[in-house]
Structure formats: structure tokens, C-alpha cells
Specification:
Length: 424
């Protein structure tokens, strides 16, 4: 059994590599030993997920936070700090091999409980995937099915439902574990970078602008970003005049405030949804607010709050109407120059996780692809998969569900063409 002390940190770091490092099953033991050498008890390190190990190794501030928490626990319990010398085998399994399949099944179940996951359809699908993976490993008598391997199977089965760690500037946070759009980490990190700049008194050159079809999850993405960053969520749809963003003084001189004003002055994440359906002239009034640290409101100039952030959502890139979205406007170039564009298309894996009914989701996807192949001007969004799955789970007849979420919104000619294309 190898013995790891603080004097071994440099040697271990040389084997692991310079940060940033991605922690995998191959280098997991080395990183665990390095964290133990830094002063974290081996029992606590063994329970860390891969992304937590990665954060401890790559972000000194996070490691100091973990050490401080442990020091507080030790003081409260009257224990001497551990970590100067710890027994952690560099190549040994992190637990005893299970003797019974039921014992192994309990490990992911406990992990699910500890993480506080909601018992929704997506969660049940993840649990089923975990159980199937572990069952297959037992059936095939694969070696090394210990606690560490069980944890890895849990993390692999979670896929895009795994927690996401953000460490940018003074921002250090970890999201809840739940299904996410594949582009969510990009939007979260971009928003965190903008927030770090505003907190430092600087001006973000560009703010995130999500471009995607209806029902692709842009609004829920912005809400989840706000939650992850600890910001209040504010929201406004398309506007046709500047006062709907900046507010106005009424005949009695009273100020009518807006969501944008609240977020800008008091902090929060502001979602400007369907921005491409707004009057281009109405957006010119907020250009200064997006590019500078202040904005001119009806009652005076207001300094931007250090916790202000913004995300825009649209169906087009602001160049005017498209074949499907005919109510969209061409936005002014000076407004568009304030944004960084992120393509936010339908994510089928995310759609399946939210619907929780693969058979029904497959049917919706076939209808969508058939409509696309026919170049029909229709929208068959993930809302059809999600709402239809919920209706079916409630016991509604399949024919009624199809009519309600798919066919009733189409002309009879469109529905006939799509149905015919689906069987080809």
C-alpha cells in the first residue's frame, strides 16, 4: 500500500499534468492521491465525483474552500486535521467487490438519493440505464466492479444530466444534475464570463444570443443559467417601443418601471426573448446599456449593477423574416454587434430525456423530419414530444393525443403529405 504525503504533491502533479486537466478513470487515483496530499481526508476524496476531483485539481480557490470546510468539521468534532499522511493505494480499487447484485444496485440508488434527484420520467430513465449497465457487468463477470466502477457507471449513464462546474473569475458554482441541452454548458460559461466582467467593473463586448426554432428550450436555458449563477430571473418578450424596455413617466410624473430596469439597476439575469420580433428602433435605446456601464432612463442615468447579466433569444439571426418565421424584423447592425450568436437547434437526446417516452418521441421526430423533407412551413417542436408523452401517461387515447399536439395545427393537405412521407 502506497503512502501519500504533502511532499508527494509535486511528483503526483508531474504525472497528472499541468492544469487544466480532465479527470478520467485512468488518472482518477493519481488525482485522488494529490488531493489527499493537499490535506483532504481520503474518505471524503473517495466520495467525490469526477467533476469535483477535476475542480479541486484545476481551481486552487475551490480546493481551499474544501479544506476550509473540512477544517470547520474537524474543529467542531474536536478532531485533529487529517491529510499529512494518508493511505490511498495508487492502483487499488476504491472499495470492496460486491458479493450480491442487490448490494451493487444499492450504490447508484444511494447516489441518486444523496444528489436529491427528482423522481421524474427523466430520472427514472437514468436509473434504468444505470441498473442495466451494472446488471450487464455482473452477468458478464467483468472484473473490477467495485465502488469506483459503480460510480463511473452512474456518471456515464447520467450523460448530459450530470452537474456542470463553472469556475470563472470570482464565480465558482455547480449546477443541479438534470437533463440539459448540449449547448447549455457553453451558454452558462459565456454568461458567467460576462458576469465576471461586470463584477470587475468592465464591459462585456458581447452578450449571448440564442438562435433556434420554437420550442427548443431557449427560455428554460436562460432560467437555469440564472439559477446556476445565483441571479434573479427577469424576462421580456418582443417590444415595439423603447418605453417597454426603459419605462416612462406618466401624467402625474410617476415612474413606470420595467423588468429590464429592475435587472439593470438591482441585478439579475434578463432574458430578452423573441428579440428578432421587436421594432428595430426600440432596441436602439438600450444599445448604450449593453455596451457601457450605464443607461439613460426617463428619470435619469442609472449605473449598471455588478450582478446584471443578459441573454437574448430569437428564431432568426436578426436579418428579417424567414420561411417559417414571417413575423421577424431586420435588426439594426449596431444592436446585433452587441451579441455573440449561439446556434440553438433541437437536441434530440434532450428532447427524449424530457419526454420520457421513446416510442412517442420517435413518432414526433419522424413527423418533423418528414415535414422538413417536404419543405413545409410548419413547426413540430419538442413541445409535441413532451406534451404528448404527458398526455399518454395520463391515459388519453393515442388518436386524441396525435390530433391535439400534431395534426390539428396543420391543414389537411399538410397532414396527409407528412403521414405519407413518414411511411416511406
Amino acid at each position: 500500500m502506497s503512502r501519500t504525503s504533502k511532499g508527494d504533491m509535486e511528483a503526483l502533479a508531474a504525472k497528472i499534468g499541468a492544469p487544466p486537466v480532465t479527470v478520467t478513470s485512468e488518472n482518477r487515483s493519481l488525482v485522488q492521491n494529490w488531493i489527499v496530499a493537499a490535506g483532504v481526508p481520503s474518505a471524503e476524496v473517495k466520495s467525490m465525483r469526477l467533476n469535483t476531483l477535476q475542480l479541486c485539481y484545476n481551481v486552487p480557490a475551490y480546493l481551499r474552500k474544501v479544506l476550509a470546510i473540512h477544517a470547520g468539521k474537524s474543529d467542531a468534532q474536536g478532531e485533529a486535521p487529517q491529510g499529512d499522511v494518508q493511505d490511498v493505494p495508487a492502483d487499488a480499487p476504491q472499495g470492496e467487490a460486491p458479493e450480491k447484485a442487490a448490494d451493487v444496485q444499492d450504490a447508484p440508488a444511494k447516489a441518486e438519493k444523496d444528489k436529491g434527484k427528482a423522481t421524474d420520467a427523466a430520472g427514472r430513465d437514468i436509473g434504468a440505464a444505470i441498473a442495466a449497465a451494472i446488471g450487464a457487468a455482473l452477468a458478464n463477470h467483468k472484473p473490477g466492479l467495485d465502488e469506483t466502477r459503480v460510480r463511473e457507471i452512474v456518471e456515464e449513464a447520467q450523460g448530459n444530466a450530470r452537474p456542470i462546474v463553472v469556475a470563472i473569475g470570482d464565480i465558482l458554482t455547480e449546477t443541479k444534475a438534470k437533463p440539459r441541452h448540449a449547448k447549455f454548458p457553453l451558454v452558462l460559461n459565456m454568461s458567467a464570463a460576462c458576469l465576471a466582467l461586470t463584477r470587475a467593473g468592465a464591459n462585456p463586448a458581447m452578450w449571448p444570443f440564442l438562435v433556434g426554432p420554437a420550442g427548443s428550450g431557449k427560455t428554460s436555458c436562460a432560467h437555469d443559467v440564472a439559477e446556476a449563477l445565483g441571479l434573479k430571473f427577469w424576462h421580456t418578450g418582443a417590444v415595439d417601443s423603447p418605453y417597454k424596455l426603459l419605462g416612462f413617466l406618466d401624467a402625474q410624473g410617476r415612474l413606470a418601471r420595467t423588468s429590464f430596469r429592475e435587472a439593470f439597476e438591482h441585478g439579475g439575469l434578463f432574458l430578452f426573448d423573441e428579440i428578432d420580433a421587436s421594432d428595430p428602433a426600440a432596441l436602439l435605446g438600450v444599445n448604450d446599456a449593453l455596451a457601457n456601464g450605464f443607461a439613460s432612463f426617463p428619470d435619469g442615468i442609472v449605473k449598471r449593477h455588478r450582478d446584471f447579466s443578459l441573454i437574448a433569444g430569437a428564431n432568426t439571426i436578426g436579418n428579417g423574416l424567414s420561411r417559417q418565421y414571417v413575423g421577424r424584423n431586420q435588426l439594426d447592425g449596431s444592436s446585433l454587434d452587441r451579441f455573440a450568436f449561439i446556434e440553438w437547434n433541437y437536441d434530440e437526446s434532450f428532447e427524449r430525456a424530457l419526454a420520457g417516452n421513446d416510442e412517442w418521441t420517435d413518432y414526433v421526430l419522424r413527423a418533423r423530419k418528414a415535414a422538413d423533407s417536404l419543405s413545409l412551413r410548419v413547426v413540430i417542436s419538442p413541445r409535441a414530444s413532451i406534451a404528448g408523452a404527458h398526455m399518454l401517461a395520463a391515459g388519453l387515447p393515442r388518436a386524441d393525443v396525435e390530433s391535439a399536439v400534431l395534426w390539428s395545427r396543420l391543414t389537411s393537405e399538410q397532414a396527409t403529405k407528412i403521414r405519407a412521407a413518414m411511411v416511406l
